[in-house]
Amino acid sequence: MGSHYEAPIRAPLVTGNKSYHQITVDVARPIEGSANKQWWIVFIISLGLFMWGIGCIIYTISTGIGTWGVNKTVNWAWDITNFVWWVGIGHAGTLISAVLLLFRQKWRMGINRSAEAMTIFSVIQAGLFPVIHMGRPWLAYWIVPIPNTFGSLWVNFNSPLLWDVFAISTYLTVSLVFWWTGLLPDFAMIRDRAVKPFQKKIYSLISFGWSGRAKDWQRFEEVSLVLAGLATPLVLSVHTIVSFDFATSVIPGWHTTIFPPYFVAGAIFSGFAMVQTLLLVMRKVCNLEDYITLQHIELMNIVIMITGSIVGCAYITELFIAWYSGVEYEQYAFLNRATGPYWWAYWAMMTCNVFSPQLMWFKKLRTSITFSFIISIVVNIGMWFERFVIIVTSLHRDYLPSSWTQFSPEFVEIGIFLGTIGFFFVLFLLYSRTFPVIAQAEVKTILKSSGDNYKKLRDNNGK
Amino acid sequence: MSREKKYWKSEVELSNSVDINDLKHNEFQEKLPIDLEMSDELVQSSTNRRDFLKYLGFSTSAAILASCEGPVHRSVPYVIQPERIRPGIANYYATTMFDGYDAANILVKTREGRPIKIESNKLSKYHGFGNARVHSSVLSMYDSGRVQGPIFNGEDISWQNLDDQLISHLKKSDDAGKNVYLLTNTIASPTSKKIIESFTKKFKNVKHIEYDAVSETAVLDAHEIMYGVRALPFYNLDKANFILSLEADFLGDWMGSSYDKDYVKNRVPKKNNNGKAKMSRHIQIESNMSITGSNADVRIPLKPTRQKHVLAYIYNKLESKSFSVPELEDSLKQKLDRLIDELVSSGKSSVVLCGHDDIDSQIISFRINEILKSEVKSRTKVSLLRKGDDKKLNNIFKDYENGVLGGVIMSGVNPVYSLPDTMDFKSLLSKVDFSVNFSMKMDETSAESKYVAACPHYLESWGDFEFINGEYSLCQPTIKPLFDTRQFEECLMKWSGSENSYYDEIRTNWESNILKNGIIWNKVLHDGVYSKDNKIQLKPNDNLNFTLHIESLLSDKSDGFELIIYSKPGMGDGQQANNPWLQEFPDPISRVSWDNYLTVSKFDADNIGLKNYNESNGALNSNYASVSCDEIELKIPVIIQPGQAKGTVGISFGYGRTQGLKPEMKTGQNAFRLYNNFSKLQFVNIKPVYEIHEFACVQLHNTLMGRGDIIKETTLETFNTKPKNYWNAIPVVSKNHIETAVNKKEVNIWEEFDRSIGHHFKLSIDLNACTGCGACVIACHAENNVPVVGKREIRKSRDMHWLRIDRYYSSDVSFEKDKEKKENIDGLVESLNVFGELEDPNENPQVVFQPVMCQHCNNAPCETVCPVAATSHGRQGQNHMAYNRCVGTRYCANNCPYKVRRFNWFLYSNNEEFDFHMNDDLGKMVLNPDVVVRSRGVMEKCSFCIQSTQAIILKAKNEGREANANEFNDAVACSAACSTGALKFGDINNEESEVFERSKDDRVYHLLEYVGTKPNVFYHTKVRNNGKMKKT
Amino acid sequence: MANKHVHAIYDDDDKLLSAVKILKSKGVNINDVFTPFPVHGLDHALDLKPTRIAIAAFIYGFIGFTFAILMINYIMIVDWPQNIGGKPSFTLIENLPAFVPVIFELTVFFAAHLMVITFYVRSSLWPFKKAENPIPETTDDKFLIQITSFKDQKKLMSMIKQTDYHNIDIIEHQSLVAESNKLVNESSQVSIGFVFHSRKYSNGSSNLRIQFTKGRGSQYAKNTGIRIFRKYWSSSKNKVSNKHPEHEIINKKLEGIKSKIVTGKEKFQNGVISFKQLHNYVLDN
Questions:
Q1: Which end of chain C is more exposed for a tag (fewer CB within 10 A), N or C?
Q2: Cα–Cα distance between B570 and B102 in angstroms, integer?
Q3: Do A395 and B808 touch (CB under 8 A)?
Q4: Ramachandran sector of residue B920 (left: φ over 0; alpha: ψ -120 to 50; beta: rest)
């Protein structure tokens, strides 16, 4: 047992005198049991939203982008706002599972599975927008470098949008295999417990016949480590590249060198907030309080607070640089953000992203579940506004005052946004009923070091 | 012998029972359940199941075969290949447009026999360039709402019938001793005049009246009184060094044609060898903000009645007479005194132009010019563009009341629409015995007249004109008449019993009377113009009693608001109201399309309670004003117009048409209703009406926000005295802590592409020469098949204009002041306030026009960001746009600093939602076959008319030569259409080309140079002549 | 004796680890170890060779990197160099800054995916792959040491007994096969078959037992009380051959048992009796 020593002062990450078997049982419960009423209610609502979204998308594609509110000056609005928002949310998953793995943060194990799931689902949402925002989405495949009917007509590797294509697709697929590989032992566990033949078939199919040999585990851990090593720069690169969409342009308010770090911080910020939102619900519904403890929540809150502060600094820096640059267009762009027609969006962003997370300095607040829940939602609203502010307020008043105009959305783009939210929750709810929502194999490894019962044991032995 | 085997089907058979045999023969015990209606013969019919299946099979396959037939594209080949029509090669014909309002000698570009574009006729001395309306006129020919044949009481009849019936009508009314009126627009055609004379000779009771919708009677009369010739004065503005204009919109539609070409000749400062430049000085005193006023060096907004006082004041000074002129404010007095000094000092080369619709002020202005011995006012030439005499119109009504009115024959007029409410022509028409309207449209008048004689568009007709004495021009058909139409003159000839065609008439008339011997008709027809010096000597009548006129001038009292009815460069008198190009053409001043409105000063608007405001998507809204004059009331939306003189308002003619146009085109309010006794000046009362009106305005922000490097400006003084760097400095960047000009090579982080080989096209835009008339905008539409998107879309800021003319107001008294104001900002709070202020235009702002199209940057931001490389740079400097490759991410449009890229938000052709010319087969005939009609979801923008530059290069190639220096000058539609030469296009690699010479000019600057986009379009700093006096 | 598997089952990772160490020290040839989660130090204890998958990943990454550069160079520089925004498309180097992001992404893409594929292939993981852990608990909370090759079973047993084991299974090869066959067709079915006890009496005869198996789950074997030489047993007919002197009696007895098995199975499936009761029901003698 000495091999499992952990400082007694560290709070246990697994509570409720769990044994290995209990962990198994707890994780398998939501899958083996049947869905309760609330689940169905939420599911039906999300499905409804999803359908509505699909309707709006069909309308857009069949009629034209003109069905949106965008115009000759503000050519992007909700579409790209949503795209960046969803991609940003996606980042938390990879960050938790990859970066925290590299830093050997054990508390990640309680949450990484769901965080990664969230990543994949939100990146799917994000991926929708670049396609449907095209004037001719049926030609979307032209953005991949394939030889085509027009002779040697290739894509343009100078374009940040093309970088996006590569970044997003790499990110999605890599996090998918990362996630799935981690799922294999847990699927195997479900498979071996399964009683219903069909269920057993399915799980033995998706568990790829995992048997848990010593050699498999050795490779498994190596692969996870290397994947983490690859995913870490990847996750940073993805939002960096997304930020290039703006940073490499010439529009005042977009053309800003601070964007890459600023966007990445923002992404982690919003991502953690979303994880927080989802887990706070899930630990209740699937009663996983023993695995997603108050400590987890607190740690998450701290990350939110820190990234929130980074984002805040970024905002201030932007303003400072704008003033310091002495470029009148730059200066006006930011003056206009804060005081122009879209001042409300700017200040909504400021309140939600900069001021509200600062309350996390109070332990009382950051350990309060309701408060964390509220903040987590507020933060995501704020981050949506951040992207809206960057895109719309920069565009609507750029260089030539003759082209200045404003933007207001049509029901179609609002519908599409709601649709993606619906789609996201549909996926997540299905996941929570059919997937092991906690990486039980990993949690078992830390049971002895961070399980409360073992800790007590050790304390009594005076070890 | 072999025993044949026997098989039993069952052992019953063996036991050979009886019933088994018949059982064998009909295997079904009871009858099949055949429906009752199935008659026996059907049952016994030869058609058995197999046949049925055969038929079924056959019919099915037949049906399938039938449905396999592909769409049929009918293409009719020439039976006889016509002369000189080669597919793909354009033919040009010289002709002349005159519709009673616009006059221009033009070339018509035809492709495969279709006229598709209007070009300028360089051979013409005075009217060689068309304005926006002239350029649009080609689309009016392809108007799907045209009358397609003669109509009687709404039924189609044959021309034969119409002739017979009319001749009988004419005879009848002659016998009944009733008068028949021939109501036409101004007849500027010598031949038509002859024809009408012979017609009136034949039918004694026919009286001919010329009538102009927008009347110039006052000027004509004044000119007659002063010079004894009933014609419009003609001015040689190219001789003018000092122009004082009162209410005269001579760059717009003042007296029938724009003087912009001559005016600009002296407005572009050219440095002579001693480094000093000269340019004329222009002072405009007016009530509405006109494009003339916005081009003036000094603009003084003033009520029309006050203007008359000013006129009197000036006259006083010059004649050193002493009338008791009502007190003028001191500030105004001082200004005027200075102006008068200048006026006198520039003597012969100064001129006073007057746009007031009353004889007195006209005579006084003539007189002043005489006192000044102005050479600008021509003594040998008069303009014959307007001859209408409103007073005569009353005769019709008199005769009508006296019951001696037989009938009315109308041509080129629309009195039911264009007469004020006080003259009820409608009921008159309903009462007369017969009425004929020669018209292309089922317009307001046609709807009321018994006979509608469908007449052809001018591009389908013959004609001849004399716009200025001695300046003749011909009009020839460029296409076979599309419909069963006949020209007015043709009919008159028929009715007066002549057998000739109008063409013969014109030709004989010209060969006998006009052409000097030795001049061949065909040559003239080819040129389209012919000038001959039949000079007249205008003798001013000096012993008129000017005192009387002055007194009546001063007697003019103002009550209520002074309304000046004006005409827009877009819609004019409203003849082409059904032309989508003109409807969507934004007004150069207000930038509002699809509407007319009441222009009112901020001051008055606040007092009355009229407002403009923007919706959440930026679109412009206003409330209504009810404008009442006597009993007539007009409910009209409001535009708060900077520069509008306090106490005055303006409404434009040409809107509020109700008949003969598509529903989308029924826009605005009819200002003619208020056009009492044909005076543009009316006294009205204004009340606010609290209903929302939705405008379609393409420019929602009016000021420049002190951004000095978008429009570079300087005064003539600085221009002459200070070095270039002072008034046109190139922005610098710090390179290794050394400030280096951005256009220096070492600033560029990349190795440049070699642009010295082959052609490299550039476009030069001179802000001094651009009057903002907007002819280029329409020319661009015609050349590049730019779609019309309609009011709803314009409101959403989705206009498709490839070329737009930005108009900026200064927020302080001048743009210079704005700049200073911005630069002296100190601290955050102040910056907030100042930028707030800068958003509102001044009450009498400086105005500047800036044509903006794709700048074809060498380092184009749009190209880099396109993921599919749909837009990349050409070898000849153009920024290409491959529509077929575009997937429509719109990133390029976002990243364009000039916001010139236009996205096809919807399918604009063949779409019921956009029922404009691209939605019907007739309208589509105007499309330029060299330019693709863009599909939905692709980006589009100015292409530097690459189709024509390529055509020119190809032509040169075929002829085995190099394209010569100025061959490209008119390649792009905009520069070809520009009468003032503000836009010049050409090959910069050819040192003889004009554009090369212009690129060496000191005034050259690039739009947003500091961004480093290296545009191929360059602008020329605007120089204002502040004269000796400081800015007012 | 290669047709025998010894499964030493443990219920704790530490116990497992020590056991492995002990057995290894005793020179037992551990064929494989199945655990529900990675037990740290196990690979050393089993002295497994360190995996080279990381190196593979590096190579894959390098391949991706080269591929990216070659592709971009061909597309942007060789095949159709365009003037895009004035960026120099003369050589790859001049234009390279714009290509860095894609090159990076492709490197990661190749490294990650090819590595994972390699992992799946080497550890033979793919859909429709049959799981190989002998008892299902090894994915839950049991740790299993599989020993397939040993000389002396007793010695081995004694060794294992020294460790803190939870349970030991010795599985006959044929029954293994039989069992696994059953597994496939009737997953959670109860299966009942005849097997011989592994132990032999001195005269070489051995006890005929009945083995009850429920799904992949618990197994239970019970003596029938019949003791015969294996040579008389025909596993195909599940009866004693006629050569046996008292074959009538035995077969009669077997018939009885068989019928009981049939009825018992039914009872069990109808849920009348539990798995345990089934044992007694079949052999209530």
A1: C
A2: 12
A3: no
A4: beta
Structure tokens at B4: 């044949």
Work out the pLDDT band at A105, boundaries 50, 70, 90: confident
User: Which chains have 3 or more CB–CB distances shorter than 8 Å to chain A?
Assistant: B, C
Complex ipTM, two decimals? 0.87
**Cα–Cα separations (whole angstroms), residue B567 to A67, B222, B668:** 36, 22, 13
Which SS3 state, helix, strand or coil, does residue B692 take?
A: strand
Q: Which of B44-53, B373-382, B794-803 has the lowest mean pLDDT?
A: B44-53
Of B750, B874, B875, the CB nearest to C86: B750
Q: What percent of chain C has pLDDT over 70?
A: 88
Tell me: pLDDT of A225 over 50.
Answer: yes
* B468 closest CA partner among B977, B93, B105: B105
85-144 of C, contacting A, C-beta below 8 A: 85, 87, 95, 98-99, 101-102, 104-106, 108-109, 111-113, 115-116, 119-120, 122-133, 136-141
The predicted model scores a pTM of 0.86
Angstrom distance (rounded) from CA C215 to CA C191 = 8
Q: Angle, nearest 10°, between helix axes A294-325 and A259-285?
A: 160
Q: Please give the biggest Cα pair distance in chain A.
A: 79
Please indicate if any CB of chain C lies within 8 Å of the CB of B895: no
Structure tokens that stand for A51 in this block: 């359908």
* Placement of tokens 């568009």 in the chain: B457
DSSP count for chain A of H helices, then E strands: 19, 0
The dihedral built from the CA positions of residue B588, B593, B599 and B601, taken in this order, carries a sign that is: negative
Evaluate whether A50 touches A426 at the Cβ level (below 8 Å).
yes
Report chain C residues whose CB lies below 8 A from the CB of A1.
Answer: 14
Q: Which residues of B touch C88 (CB under 8 A)?
A: 750-751, 753
Report pLDDT for C179: 45
d(CA A383, CA A269): 8
Minimal Cβ distance to B903: which of A72, A142, A403: A72
How does pLDDT run across A36-55, given as a tens digit for each residue? 888 899 999 999 999 999 99
Number of residues written out for chain A:
463
**pLDDT tens, A300-337?**
899 899 999 999 999 999 999 988 888 889 989 999 99
Q: Which residue in the set A24, A205, A210 is minimally distant from C128, CB to CB?
A: A205
Q: What is the pLDDT of residue A108?
A: 81
> CA of B705 to nearest chain A CA: how many angstroms apart?
8
Instruction: Tokens for B724, please give them.
Output: 């270039």
Please enumerate, as own/partner, the contacts of A298-301 that have beta carbons within 8 Å and a separation of 24 or more.
A298/A363, A298/A366, A298/A367, A299/A107, A300/A111, A300/A272, A300/A275, A300/A276, A300/A372, A301/A276, A301/A360, A301/A366, A301/A367, A301/A372, A301/A375
Q: If we measure between CA atoms, which residue out of B487, B314, B518, B305 comes closest to residue B412?
A: B487
* Distance between CA atoms of residues B415 and B418, nearest Å: 5
Bridge partners, A350 (sequence order): none
